[in-house]
Amino acid sequence: MSFLSHSILMILTVSQAGDPTPGPRIQHKASIAPTKLAQIEEFLVQHDRLVSRGKVQKLREMYAPDFFCTDLENACREEMLRLWEALLDQHRDVTFATKIARVDQLGDYFMVSGCRPFQGRHVTTHESIHDDLCESIVLRQVAPDRLEIQNLFEIDHDKFGRFLDESSVYRAESLGFEFEYLTDYLLVPHRNSGASIDQVLLMDPAQGGWLKLKLMEPSLSFDMVSLLHAEAKESAEDSFEWLEKPRQGTTEGGFEFAYAECSIGVGEETYCRGSMYLTADHQTLFSLTLRAPLQAWQKCRQDLQILANTLRLLRPGDESTHRDAILRRNPRWNTVQNGVYRHPVAPLSMVVPESVKAVPLLGDGVQRVRFELKDDPHTAALLTVYDPGWGPESQEQLVAWAEARVRNLVCRPSDQPLKDDRSKTEVLGDKQPAVTFDVECGETGSLMRHRAVSFAVEGYRGILQMIPRSPHGDVQDQVWDELRSALRHL
């Protein structure tokens, strides 16, 4: 049996060829040679000086030809230079300097983490700009006297306090979990994206593989196998093939899991991906995603299993579920109290209608509340509010994104004439971008009506959606009107 068909939770055994040659292990700043640290610091000083002086084309030789940044929409080297050029064209009197907080080494690669304050004056508005860019920069030693930038990641600087380097443990006390990280990967304290509560990236720059761990509370009730199928549908680019179809089981740590493997072709390149969802309470959800080239797949695949088996919950109290433990440690996420919803920062509130049960969902950056219909238990409405700088850039894009997600993941083609209305809908006392459309879903082929309306309040963008899972349109119509009327701008 090939490794692709082995159980992801098997006990690893040594092949007849013996143990693979051990690769490099991570080293931290204290054990890196002072001359190497000085070389890194001088390299970044030179880079930042070129940025401050607007010498974009001279930056080219400082970025690797195969530079790749997933956090900037998969920007390559040329795209990165264009982004710098566009930013500097819009600002004058620019100063830019990297303040190094941490350096990790893995073989010929160095990950330099810290904040990079960007200051300048906008050429049109003359407004002063100050932005702290917190990033991890992966440098590659291509010659004794030469470094180049291989990758760039947006990071959450506060997560460094969760790295217990002596024991190689990542411990998120406030989120009630920990795991043992692999010492032949660089550990990136990735900035959370979307509705994730936590997000960490482990990368092997030499092999080109990476592992991403996310913790989230899904907006709606979830089935892990369905999530894997939906993920495959979203990510099938040029070519897609299952290597192992979704299946379920239980980890050594007691998590229920669903796992699948696939190969994905993008242009002339093919890579393998393993995806695992894990839950301990059917409320919070961990996702582990592995992406690696074919030549590194077997090792990286085993590493995903190792990480999954070291994932543990921390329950010092008497909380009945992982979600309870998180909410007790993070009371700011309990945005519904005594029948009233209030956003923790934005001037938004709602007296919750009697027809629904309001469930505040966990997370910063994207703040959500689920409204479960008491007379239609399969259906829910969802209120999502994005902090400034998060999510789609306009209300229209927000509506389009919500519609596309429903159509791609829920719907199937229909021969029936379907409603498709894009007239604006009233919310917060004004007509706002909206969409109402019918979809045919499920085994019965029943028509269900999805609704979405967006809004903006003092830099915050939000969207209210009705996501039906039954054809009880009369009940949903009534609740939709109640929710729109109840939402208030303070």
Can you put this structure into words, describing what you see?
- The protein has two domains: 14-221 and 278-313, Nuclear Transport Factor 2, Chain: A (Roll), CATH 3.10.450.50; 330-489, 3-Layer(aba) Sandwich (Protein Transport Mog1p, Chain A), CATH 3.40.1000.
- Strand 12 (186-188) and strand 13 form a beta hairpin.
- The protein is an alpha+beta fold and 490 residues long.
- Strands 1, 2, 3, 4, 5, 6, 7 and 8 form an eight-stranded mixed sheet that branches.
- The protein has helices at 34-52, 77-89, 224-235, 297-310, 322-329, 395-409, 473-486; strands at residues 27-28, 63-69, 75-76, 91-96, 99-106, 109-122, 128-143, 146-154, 163-164, 169-172, 177-180, 186-188, 196-204, 209-216, 239-250, 256-266, 269-279, 285-293, 312-313, 336-337, 340-342, 348-351, 356-360, 366-373, 380-386, 420-421, 425-427, 430-432, 434-440, 447-457, 460-467, 487-489.
- The radius of gyration is 24 Å and the shape is globular.
- Helix content is 19%, strand content 42%.
- It has seven helices and 32 strands.
- The relative contact order is 0.08.
- The longest helix has 19 residues, at 34-52.
